[in-house]
Design brief:
Elements (H helix, E strand, L loop, with lengths): L19 H21 L10 E4 L5 E4 L5 H21 L11
Antiparallel strand pairs: 1-2
Length: about 100
C-alpha cells in the first residue's frame, strides 16, 4: 500500500479524467531548479537522464535517471554539507545520536 503515492508508476498511457499537465509542470520546474544546482556543483554530466515526468495519478515526478555510484556519493556529500551549513548558521545543535 502506498497512501502517499510515492512509488506510483509513470503514466505510460494517459487517462482522460486525470489532470496530468499541472503535475508535469510542477516536475518541470523542480527539474530545472535541480539541474541549475547540479550545474553549480559541476555534477550535471552525472545526471544525463534528468527529466520531468508524471505518474498515473497525475503527480509530478523528477526522474534522475541512472547515475554512477560515485555521482550518488558526491550528491550525498553535497546534501550533507548543505545541511551542516544550515544547522551551523541557525545555531541549532546536531541531535545526539547516543540519546536514541
Amino acid at each position: 500500500m502506498d497512501p502517499r503515492r510515492v512509488i506510483a508508476s509513470r503514466a505510460e498511457e494517459l487517462a482522460p479524467a486525470v489532470p496530468y499537465v499541472r503535475g508535469w509542470a510542477d516536475a518541470k520546474r523542480a527539474t530545472g531548479a535541480l539541474a541549475e544546482q547540479l550545474r553549480a556543483l559541476g555534477l550535471e554530466a552525472g545526471f544525463l537522464g534528468l527529466k520531468a515526468d508524471v505518474s498515473v495519478f497525475g503527480d509530478g515526478l523528477v526522474c534522475l535517471g541512472p547515475i554512477r555510484p560515485e555521482t550518488a556519493q558526491l550528491l550525498a556529500e553535497a546534501v550533507a554539507t548543505g545541511l551542516a551549513l544550515e544547522m551551523a548558521s541557525s545555531h541549532t545543535p546536531f541531535p545526539d545520536a547516543s540519546a536514541a
